[in-house]
Amino acid sequence: MSGKNILITGGAGFIGSNLSLELIKKDYNLTILDNLSEQIHGVNPELPKIIHEKVNFIKGDVRDKDTWYEALEDQEIVVHLAAETGTGQSMYEIQKYSEVNLIGTANMLDILTNDKHSVEKVVVASSRAIYGEGKYDCKSCGVVYPKERKDKNMESHDFEPKCPKCGKDVFVMATDEESKKHPTSVYGITKQNQEDMVLTVCKSLGIPGVAFRYQNVYGPGQSLSNPYTGILSIFSTRIKNGNDINIFEDGKESRDFVYIDDVVSATILGIEKAEANYQVFNVGSGERTDVRTIAKKLREKYNSDIEIKVSGDYRLGDIRHNYADLSKIKNKLGYEPKFNFEKGISNFVKWVENQALKEDNYERSINELKSKGLYK
Prior knowledge:
The chain is α/β, with parallel strands linked by helices. 38% of the residues lie in helices and 16% in strands. It has 14 helices and 16 strands.
């Protein structure tokens, strides 16, 4: 498929820029559409030189339909990554998240439906956030999908999800693609709708759609100045600024952290393999790591003496655990993650050590949550 024209929306972002570099090596013709958001890219952002020299770059906003017309011209494959990301922020920046994630996607699909184009496939970035708490086992009731945790339980430091049928403690399981979708944030809701829109409309048009439900992606190139998403980058920026780390809940909450190279590999499989067409896939490491372990590992690797505080604070809408069942993507696409957490975090830390020190805006983001009543 090399030589085909590929449009990557959000192509200057973390996943997009790493994906672009690999697709350039494979001789695809790339167009990048990105608004170079200050929150992600900082003040006076520029596209990395190595990418800028090899691609057609369009600075624009997916909410602008005319920009889509320009970007889609002569494109054969669209990788739609452009989105507002940040679970906590989405709970009070509701209009912005809805407009970018939903209207931006609707603009693309409207053009594909009603205008001439050359698009043959659409790959959309979905998220593990659509699962909410994900899949759990109850010893009494079997497989269950816990509802959002109650404020009164979390206030008394009972952070574990409960069985929605009998109210007993439950035990986390790997979440597969057939698991119930019940997002607990505006961000998760928009990603679910974005995924459904792409797969539904593209199927009706006979255009193969592919959705990847990315877990917590990390690695070199991640924004170190965005305090709203990316726990490894948030913690790293605090440590490099000599600031202590405040861990929410009891520090045992866990996520599936997947290294950027594995995410890029999975996405390219989706672009190139016909077996991916009209399908949804989890993309993760298949392992879960708790937040306290992450903080300790980062402090050790940065040789820092900052204090790690487990505060019991919590954010409404946060999930407790989630990690991916990778059976489907392994069997259908041959995906196999190559980076375990130790190898991935070592690479990430080496990269951070060579970056300019970024301003730590974490406290500002927390104060915003507090002002909205979302931080306890």
